[in-house]
Design a protein that fits this description.
336 residues; Neuraminidase; nine-stranded mixed beta sheet; 48% strand; repeat; iron
């Protein structure tokens, strides 16, 4: 087992929610959207959580209220960051809780000015991905955002799109291996996009780390055992993050829902609390053994991001849905 340490940074009722987005930028985490009660989006505020503190007790929350231009409240959105800005795409909202259709636009939050800007495709006649929820976003850190899968008005998707932020153009890429799914996870690392997990409407997916090669527009698959010993079990609404651990390019997946609730979106299934590291070079999974007095309880429908530090990357985790069907308002840091 690999070793890591959990630190509880804070717990606050004002940020209790699930199906939200969380993005780390320059020592702060930016929280947006989600729900406290099923199918009722919370406010449009952005919550800034300080992360570059010496002591957990120093962690603070501040809010940015809606500006003249800001996205409507939504759940099941997805976010990624490029050049210090937070990009979010679609989600569900309104009285019908339908997918929010914004004709391929992103909402972009600039932490330096605490303002939103809607970035629309340059050519409104060109194809763009349909509105959806419980999809996944990742960026190459330079100029491209990848959008994958999720739940449109009916059914699920396995499509893959790329958005060039300089030209503001969408390109539809080779679709990922089936089945179609929501609640999947993607991460960009070492010039490739990695995808795993998700829910196809009947069962949680696992045992396959699918790898997209942008240069060749092709997918390949790394299979692994889901026995919980040599590889993580199948799950959905978890996360996949790209970071360096002990200098090695790695992926981390954690938590998630293993067995869906019979109540669907109204209830909670079996929630996992494990953490796994994938060494990209060796292709091996290792479960993390966490040191410390306490650790986060199992959860799904949460969000997490990488805190980039000069010495060693770490991970911030916020909120989600516990197995008790309670929404959580805690923030944790995981150091390797």
């Amino acid at each position: 087992m690999a070793r890591a340490v959990w630190t509880n940074l804070l717990s606050d009722d004002s940020i209790r929610r699930s199906s939200q987005t969380l993005s780390a930028v320059a020592g702060n985490a930016y929280l947006y959207g989600g729900e406290l009660r099923p199918r009722e989006p919370v406010d449009s505020a952005v919550y800034r959580i300080t992360l570059d503190n010496k002591q957990p007790s120093d962690t603070k929350i501040s809010t940015t209220t809606s500006t003249s231009e800001s996205p409507q409240p939504r759940v099941g959105s997805a976010s990624t960051t490029i050049d210090g800005k937070v990009y979010i795409f679609s989600g569900r909202g309104g009285t019908a809780m339908a997918p929010i259709e914004e004709a391929g636009s992103f909402w972009v939050f600039d932490p330096s000015t605490s303002t939103w800007l809607q970035v629309k495709p340059a050519d409104p006649q060109s194809p763009y991905p349909a509105g959806r929820s419980y999809h996944a976003l990742a960026s190459n850190g330079k100029d491209t955002i990848f959008l994958h899968a999720g739940c449109p008005e009916k059914g699920r998707l396995c499509d893959l799109w790329a958005f060039d932020i300089s030209t503001r153009q969408w390109r539809e890429l080779a679709p990922a291996p089936g089945p179609e799914r929501g609640g999947t996870s993607v991460a960009y690392a070492e010039g490739k996009l990695f995808r795993m997990n998700g829910f196809d409407g009947k069962t949680e997916q696992g045992g396959a780390l699918d790898v997209y090669d942008p240069e060749n527009n092709t997918w390949s698959t790394i299979t692994y055992s889901t026995d919980g010993v040599s590889g993580p079990g199948a799950r959905s609404v978890s996360c996949l993050l790209s970071l360096k651990i002990a200098g090695k390019p790695s992926l981390v997946t954690m938590f998630g829902e293993r067995d869906p609730s019979s109540l669907g979106h109204q209830g909670a299934g079996k929630m996992l609390s494990d953490v796994w590291i994938f060494d990209i070079k060796t292709g091996k999974w290792t479960e993390v053994q966490a040191d410390g007095e306490n650790a986060p309880e199992g959860r799904g429908w949460f969000d997490a991001d990488v805190i980039t530090n000069a010495s060693e990357d770490s991970i911030v985790v916020h909120g989600g849905l516990a197995e008790s069907n309670n929404r959580l308002g805690d923030v944790w840091r995981l150091d390797f």
